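#lab-general

N.A. 3:47 PM
ok so I finally got the sequence cleaned up, no stray characters, all 736 residues accounted for. can someone with queue access submit it? mine expired

B.Y. 3:52 PM
send it over

N.A. 3:53 PM
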Amino acid sequence: MTKAHNTALIVLAFCLFFHGVALAANISWTGGAGAREDGTYSWADPANWGGTLPGEADVALIQNVDKAPDPMLISLDGETVTVGSLKHVSTPKAILTNGCIRLAQGQVFGNSTDYGIYTDIEQLVDGKWYNDDSYGKCIALYGNLSGPGIVTSDGNQNRNLRLIGSRVSIPKIIQRSSSLDARDGTQFFGTQIEINGGFADGNYNGTKVIIRLNENGDLTEEEALVFHDGASVVFTGAGGTLTYYRPIPTVDQRLSMALKGGKADVYISGGTATGNFLTVTNFTREVGTMLYVNGSGFRLPGVANDETTGYVGPWLWDKNYLPMSVTDADGTLVAATESSLQAFPANGGSPAALMRTTADAEYTLEQNTSLFWLWDTYGEGKTFHLGDYNLDVYGPLAFRYGGGKTKLFETSGTGKMIFHGDEIIIMTGGDQRIELAVPIAWDASSSLEPYPSLMLNLGSKTSGDGVVLSGRDEIGHYRNINSSMMARKLIFDGPSDRHIHGAIQDTLHIEQRGEGTLTFEPTSSLQTRIFSLTAINGKILMKSANIAVAATIMTNGVFELAEGMSVTTTPKILNGGVYQGFGTSTHGVRDGRFLAGGVIAPGNETKAGTLTMGGMKPEGDFTLVCRVDSETNGTIAFTKNSKLTLLKTAMTGTIRVDDLTAKSRRIRPEEEFVVIDFKNGGVENPTTHGVTWQVTTGTPEHLDVSAAVVTLDTANKCLKVSGIKSLYNGTLMLFR
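B.Y. 4:20 PM
back already:
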């Protein structure tokens, strides 16, 4: 039976082989046949592949070649070969040249840097081109790229796809790595380049398309990079960057562009000659914003905002964050003027005015006012008074310069600031501070998004408050928070509750300073290298597992972990700060993180529960809250191998017992409440510590703690309190 089975397998394999369905394998280049008289190695010689040429089901693997010249030239001798995928890791240096490689499975893996692929590539199916984990590596293609397949370029940390003098005619390149770098006369024929955004190099719009002409900038018109036959660039996801480097030749560069999300940056740098333009035809925009950094010209013929003519709206800015307006007959973009009040063109335009204030005087609204752009560079401590009038803002609020200057919006009447569009854009410079001490609202009818995003340009200094929202917040729900430059502060102040639903991107410090609750919803996430979170007042409620942040909790501040939440970062609890909730803090509060006066409270103000900690080490007087409800009491549980470290320094440990039952449960003196359960860990210095225990009650006082006793029970591995009784005797009810 076994013999028959084995024979069948052999026959099956034999049949598959002769029907052209050979099993996939990695066929490695060895260079065994050696160099020919012209110094090249032959791809077609089986001896260079260990005896077997790679076929259409195989991976042609070129790496770790022994005794190779530098570089080794591997020639296809003008022929076209078909392999499944190509893995080209040039160590030592290897160059593929003179021929065409057809990819039946579509994958290319490489880290060739400047020692690249000089053959043509024919992409028969969709496939991923990606690099290894070495910083700065790339796939360098000097040949042409054609075929029906789509290429997805994937990677990060400056690992990119480089096209050098190539003719590209595949349907699409989806750029998800650091950059697609096209240079030296590369041309695109009908290819759509999708800049997919994402998170690379710590930048939320890290994905880039870089268009370099050549390093010397002396290409002729025929050699210039040109988008042909409907080729286009599409910004999706978090946006991205399109960059033209070096002087633009006299030929007009044309492409189609679609903006479908995020923040897209378009840079044209190096060119000064008259008539050198990048012309964007067939421009479409669904959502998103664009920053244009000019060098030579930039044209958007026929582009208008909200079906109007003559003005491009708050989604398009120049390098100074001024709005761009289309005024020339040929559609050339020029910066908006800097007059104090500029009306929109008579032939259209929907915000009523573009305001620029340069005087140091106070500014007071005298009627309901609609603005596209409020731009101010001067004025120490200037205040904008709304009074009983509304200020509708369609574009950015910008305060660009000045050291330590405060810009304040306030109202003593019924006026409010109403934002329109997808983003609320607030920009400050240096250590500038801008405070919105007015009610703020959002016109949802002007956006396709469920909530607006906050887009902040916060200057280059870490000092100062940055942006403060201290008025009544009628918006309450925000999508993404995008910031740029160096880390600065965004302060949520005032009595309002706020919710973050999307991503926190780039560099930012967020403070909860008001009396409300700042909630990070389960859909929120963290995409930044520099971020901190501080509770000064009110509460921060963490429902998102996607934000790994070490919070600082200060006096009157509360940080709460929602049920099911687990965080690996360590909070820092200062005097009067409260760390509470129902989740798990895997590292606990140790090594200078649980400072004198800090409070740890399982559960929250309405419900007792279990807060799991990876250890605890109070540095001074501290408080543990034992909340009691109708069913249980709150307990701090330790994770495996965690320790309660009690210093020998004299300090007071307070157990505050809060009654949440509203007198529905009568507590008797014989009941014991476990405050800390350390059965999974232990106690350091259990008999030699300097802690003096005391028991207090919460407000209102429902409990008598005069006879309460705190016990550090090392046998049962718990810290418990007993001897508590209710101050009331219950209610006598008579039934007839």
